[in-house]
Every structure is written in structure tokens, then in C-alpha cells.
């Protein structure tokens, strides 16, 4: 579980609608959080699965952590895994690859959300 910047971001990022199991189908869902990339985005409600990455929390104004998307791809590539062609190891399907040191250690001072 990730500690987000504020209660509203936690509600938005971790909340699940009982009516719409798909966050992109729920008109009340505003934020998409992708744990494996530690990436936040505002959902584009156009019938698809698009979102726009955000750098600051819309509610409390806190700076959000940098996306780890590039590191994710680099860590897989370093293991000879092509995520488009090969099976991705389970620890790379969420934020375990960052928490458990599967990837290179986080740089000193790098601001990532804390895992619970």
C-alpha cells in the first residue's frame, strides 16, 4: 500500500467504485495511480483508457514523485526481458520491484511515496 500525499488523493487513487469496476468507466473517478510506475494521472473520460500525467496534487498542491516508468523498462531490459514480447515477472506488476530492491537502489534524496 502506498502513502499518498493527502486524504483526497488516497481516496481517488485507491478508491474503487461498486458500480464501475473499471476506473476508466466510472464518471466519478478523476485520478489513475499506476503503482508499478508510481505514476499519477488525470483520467480522460473519452471512452478509452487515457490519462494525463500530473506533477502536483490537485487537492493539496504537493509535488508528486517522478514517474518510474523509464526505470521499470530499464530494469526489465537489464534482465533481458522485453515487456512487449516476454512474460513480465510478478514483482514487476506492482511496486514490489522498487520496494524490494529488485531494481537499482533509489538515488539519495529521490522522493517516492512510502509503502505501508
List keywords for this structure.
3 strands; 3 helices; alpha+beta; 3-stranded antiparallel β-sheet; 116 residues; disordered C terminus
In short:
By secondary structure, the chain is an alpha+beta fold.
Descriptive report:
The protein is of the alpha+beta class. 19% of the residues lie in helices and 10% in strands. The protein has a three-stranded antiparallel sheet. A hairpin with a 4-residue loop joins strand 1 (31-34) and strand 2. The protein is globular, with a radius of gyration of 15 Å.
The major sheet is characterized as: 3 strands, antiparallel
Number of strands: 3
Rg result: 15 Å
The end-to-end span amounts to 5 Å
Number of helices: 3
Taken from the alpha-carbon principal axes, the silhouette is globular
Percent helix, as a range, is 10-25%
Share in β-strands: 5-15%
* SSE series: HEEEHH
What is the residue-mean pLDDT, rounded to a whole number? 88
Order of strands, main sheet, comes to 1-2-3
Amino acid at each position: 500500500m502506498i502513502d499518498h500525499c493527502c486524504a483526497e488523493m488516497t481516496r481517488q487513487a485507491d478508491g474503487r467504485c461498486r458500480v464501475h469496476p473499471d476506473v476508466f468507466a466510472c464518471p466519478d473517478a478523476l485520478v489513475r495511480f499506476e503503482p508499478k510506475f508510481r505514476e499519477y494521472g488525470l483520467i480522460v473520460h473519452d471512452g478509452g483508457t487515457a490519462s494525463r500525467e500530473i506533477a502536483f496534487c490537485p487537492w493539496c498542491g504537493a509535488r508528486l514523485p517522478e514517474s518510474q516508468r523509464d526505470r521499470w523498462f530499464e530494469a526489465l531490459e537489464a534482465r533481458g526481458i522485453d515487456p512487449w514480447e516476454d512474460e513480465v515477472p510478478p514483482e514487476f506488476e506492482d511496486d514490489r520491484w522498487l520496494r524490494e530492491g529488485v531494481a537499482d537502489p533509489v538515488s539519495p534524496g529521490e522522493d517516492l511515496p512510502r509503502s505501508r
